[in-house]
Amino acid sequence: MRFSRRRVVSLAAGAALGWTLAGHLSGSFDSCLAQKTRRKGKSAPKEPSGRTTAMSVASEPFGSTREGTAVHLYTLSKAGGMKAKVMTLGATLTSVEVPDRQGNLDNVTLHLDSFADYYAGHPCFGSICGRYANRIAKAKFALDGATYTLAANNGRNHLHGGRVGFDKRVWKAEPVEGKGFVGVTMTYVSPDGEEGYPGTLTVKVQYSLTDDNRLSIDYTATTDKPTVLNLTNHAYWNLAASGDVLRHELMLHADRYLPVDETLIPLGELRPVKGTPMDFTTPQAIGSRIAQVSGGYDHCYVLNKKLGEDLSLAARVVEPTSGRVLELYTTEPGVQLYTANGLNLKRPGVFYGNHYGFCLETQHFPDSPNQPLFPSTVLRPGKTYRQLTVHKFSVAQ
């Protein structure tokens, strides 16, 4: 579709987590990719050769909701290199273009071609899930003596925030820049009682693209009443940019995972992966043992974090044909591995089939509000939820 106008802003070129909700401290991973940002006046970062790396963020109209709310698309670009696109509907990552070993750029996240296609519905391609990503058993939880009933939108359970979760809301956006990065900050205010959750919750999600091919997602949130919160981005990755992902080689920095019941609710046990098809502690092709896992992978892994450890490596994925590499770092205690089991999406010019993508959803554990032995996901007034996840892209020669 054609856009009536285009606005481009040229820019020259983030608390110990442990087992709490607190999130990341400043000073980690290049100061968490610039906790402090400025919108103007930065000089371009220098490459080793002395050349400057031009970076920019562009905004353009993308569509509008039935109620007439405008939806915009933001493009974060590094001149001659990596590019990412985010739309305000669902704070959705619609494109991540990275080079292969020949330098060819491809979109390595599953996506749709138009706003109309997204608005017609999709399986959370690249969207922010909340208030509570993943499942809450029987769509209810108790907090401070009160019981809250949520939408049962996944059988008898609650999934990804309900029928109208954060993935279906229009967020406000503002471009940002800092030393060596450009980005966009998405903001959504979830009113008290929305989808059954207590408290008015203000959420900010900042997507940042750096001049060394990192895409970071930095989350913060505050509330005016005690509530529960678990945020993630639901991007489906395919480093080959086509076909299934069964040959992708995956390493997970996790010695344990959460076994689940028939409705994918954790049993409350942290089970060792050693000697099972769940073991990715050394690189394994995703498809090498998937037939031994009923229904495919859709499990939360317990990351190997030391008490008080902040941002750390969670996963590494290599696609052998293209040479593309994705390293995932997070402050979260868990990552949900999902292999697009049974995916069958057809739109004009688009087909995504079974296992055409994989998700690495950094998060707290599913059903934590009902599992007292899991890390707490309670957020109280006066406290700030913080989470940082970084995707580092490179090429294996």
* CATH class call: Mainly Beta
Terminal residue distance:
38 Å
- Named CATH architecture: Distorted Sandwich
Shape: globular
Radius of gyration: 20 Å
Account of the 3D structure:
By secondary structure, the protein is mainly β. It has one domain (7-395): Beta-galactosidase, Chain A, domain 5, CATH 2.70.98. Helix content is 3%, strand content 39%. The chain contains two helices and 30 strands. It has helices spanning 29-34, 115-119, and strands at 7-11, 55-64, 70-78, 83-87, 92-99, 105-107, 128-129, 135-136, 140-143, 146-149, 158-159, 172-178, 181-190, 201-210, 214-223, 227-228, 232-233, 249-252, 256-257, 271-272, 284-285, 298-302, 312-318, 324-330, 334-338, 345-347, 350-352, 359-363, 378-379, 385-395. The strands form eight sheets. A nine-stranded antiparallel β-sheet has the order 12-13-14-15-30-24-23-18-21. β3 (70-78) and β4 form a beta hairpin. Residues 1-51 have low confidence and may be disordered.
Task: Give a quick precis of the structure.
The chain has 397 residues and is mostly beta strands.
Characteristic terms for this protein:
397 residues; mainly beta; Beta-galactosidase, Chain A, domain 5; 9-stranded antiparallel beta sheet; globular
